[in-house]
Design goal:
Tyrosyl-Transfer RNA Synthetase, six-stranded mixed β-sheet, five-stranded mixed β-sheet, 3 domains, Structural Genomics Hypothetical 15.5 Kd Protein In mrcA-pckA Intergenic Region, Chain A
C-alpha cells in the first residue's frame, strides 16, 4: 500500500475511497495535487474542521501539494449536506472577511515555505461568478440526472423529513462537481478529500471529469468524528471550539483537549498530533492524565505555538493547585464603576461568560461549584465588593477545571 494511504488509515482518517488500488499506484509513481474545500460561513473554523486540516498536513508530509478551496462562491448558496434548513445568506463583504481570516488560520497549520508543497489557495467565486447559465446547463448540466441527484443523502434526508430544499441548494452538488473539474483542468488536481457527508458530491465530481474530459480522478473521505460519549466532535455545552483566539483563548483551547474523555485520548493523539504511530503506541501504558496533558500541549502548539501551550499548562497547574491567581490565566476586564455600584456573584459569572444562564449559575452555587479566590461561595445572593480584589483582580472558578482572572479596568 502507498505510504500516504497507509498513514491515512493508521491515523483513523480513512472512510471511503474511489478506486483505491488505482489511487495507491498513482501515489507511488507521482507527486500529486489534492484539494479540500472549506465553507466560509463563519469568521473562524472550529475544531470540527481540524481533521481535514490534518489531512492537508499529511499530504505535505508525503511531498504532495494541497489545494485549499475557499468556497466564496458556494458559500453564497449553501451546502444542504447534514443541514435541516436553508442557511443564512451572507453579504459579499462578510464572506470576503471570513475568507481572509480562515486563510490566516490554515496558514498556521501548513508549511508555506517549500515551493513544491506549499498550499495553493483558491476561491471558487473566481470561476463561478461569471458562469453563463445557458452554457453551464448545456455543457455541465447534461451530465447529471435528477433521478440520481435525488438519491444522495444530502437531498434525500431533507425530503424524507418534509423539510424544504430550495432549488438554489439543490444545485450545490453540481457546482461542487464543477469545482473539481476546474481544478483538474487548471491545476491538474486529481484527488478531492472531504468528510463522509461529502461522498455523493465528490463522486459527482469524479464522474463529471470522466465524462467531460475523460481524465481519471479520485475521491477520499474521512469519518464523522464522534466522542466516546456519543456527542459530535467540537460541540460543547458552552459552544463551538473555535480555532481563532479572538473567539476562544489558547488556554480554553488547551483545556478542551485536556478534558478529553479517557476513551478518546489515544485516538486523538493519532488524529490530531504529529507524533508518529510508533511513538503513540509506546505511550499506551503511560498515565492517562499525563497523556491528556501531552495531547493538549501538542494540539495547542500546532495552532497557537509552543509558548502558548506551555503557558496554558502552567496556568492550569497554578489554577488547580490554588497557590496563586495564575499570571497566565485568561482574564476578563470589568469596569471599576460596576464594582463600586456592587455586583452580584451571578452577574459577575455572566460577565465572565463562563456560564450564560442564571438558573444554571444558581444550581452551580448551590452545589458548591463556584469559588472566589479559591473560597467556595454557597450564597446565590453574594455581593462582590471592591475589597475582594487583590492587586486589582480576583480569581473566579467554576468546578475544578474552569478558572478566570477578573481584573478591574
Amino acid at each position: 500500500m502507498n505510504k500516504f494511504l497507509k498513514e491515512f488509515k493508521d491515523r483513523g482518517y480513512f472512510y471511503q475511497c474511489t478506486s483505491e488500488d488505482e489511487l495507491s499506484d498513482l501515489l507511488n509513481k507521482n507527486k500529486i495535487k489534492a484539494y479540500i474545500g472549506f465553507d466560509c460561513t463563519a469568521e473562524s473554523l472550529h475544531v470540527g474542521s481540524l481533521l481535514q486540516i490534518m489531512c492537508l498536513r499529511l499530504l505535505q508530509k508525503n511531498d504532495h501539494r494541497p489545494i485549499v478551496l475557499l468556497g466564496g462562491g458556494t458559500t453564497r448558496i449553501g451546502d444542504p449536506s447534514g443541514k435541516d434548513k436553508t442557511r443564512k445568506i451572507l453579504s459579499e463583504k462578510e464572506i470576503e472577511k471570513n475568507i481572509k481570516n480562515i486563510t490566516n488560520i490554515l496558514k498556521k497549520f501548513l508549511d508555506n515555505d517549500n515551493p513544491n508543497t506549499k498550499p495553493i489557495f483558491v476561491n471558487n467565486f473566481s470561476w463561478l461568478k461569471n458562469l453563463n447559465y445557458i452554457s453551464f446547463l448545456r455543457d455541465i448540466g447534461k451530465h447529471f440526472t435528477v433521478n440520481r441527484m435525488l438519491t444522495f443523502d444530502s437531498v434525500k434526508l431533507r425530503l424524507e423529513r418534509e423539510q424544504s430544499l430550495s432549488y438554489m441548494e439543490f444545485n450545490y452538488m453540481i457546482l461542487q462537481a464543477y469545482d473539481f473539474l476546474e481544478l483538474n483542468t487548471k491545476e491538474n488536481c486529481v484527488l478531492q478529500i472531504g468528510g463522509s457527508d461529502q461522498w455523493g458530491n465528490i463522486v459527482n465530481g469524479v464522474e463529471l471529469i470522466k465524462r467531460h474530459s475523460n481524465n481519471n480522478t479520485f475521491g477520499l473521505t474521512t469519518p464523522l468524528i464522534t466522542l466516546a460519549s456519543g456527542a459530535k466532535m467540537g460541540k460543547t455545552e458552552n459552544g463551538a471550539i473555535w480555532l481563532d483566539k479572538k473567539f476562544l483563548s489558547p488556554y480554553d483551547y488547551w483545556q478542551f483537549w485536556r478534558n478529553t474523555d479517557d476513551r478518546d485520548v489515544m485516538k486523538f493523539l493519532k488524529m490530531f498530533t504529529d507524533l508518529s504511530i510508533n511513538e503513540i503506541d509506546k505511550l499506551k501504558k503511560d498515565n492517562i492524565n499525563d497523556l491528556k496533558v501531552l495531547l493538549a500541549n501538542k494540539t495547542t502548539a500546532l495552532l497557537h505555538g509552543e509558548n502558548e501551550a506551555k503557558n496554558s499548562e502552567q496556568a492550569a497547574k497554578e489554577a488547580f493547585s490554588g497557590k496563586s491567581l495564575g499570571s497566565t490565566l485568561p482574564k476578563v476586564n470589568v469596569k471599576l464603576n460596576k464594582i463600586q455600584e456592587k455586583i452580584s456573584l451571578i452577574d459577575l459569572v455572566l460577565l465572565s461568560r463562563l456560564e450564560n444562564s442564571k438558573s444554571e449559575i444558581r444550581r452551580l452555587i448551590k452545589g458548591n461549584a463556584v469559588k472566589i479566590n479559591d473560597n467556595i461561595i454557597s450564597d446565590e445572593k453574594y455581593i462582590i465588593s471592591q475589597n475582594l480584589f487583590k492587586n486589582n483582580y480576583i480569581k473566579l472558578s467554576i468546578g475544578k477545571k474552569r478558572h478566570l482572572k477578573i481584573e478591574l479596568n
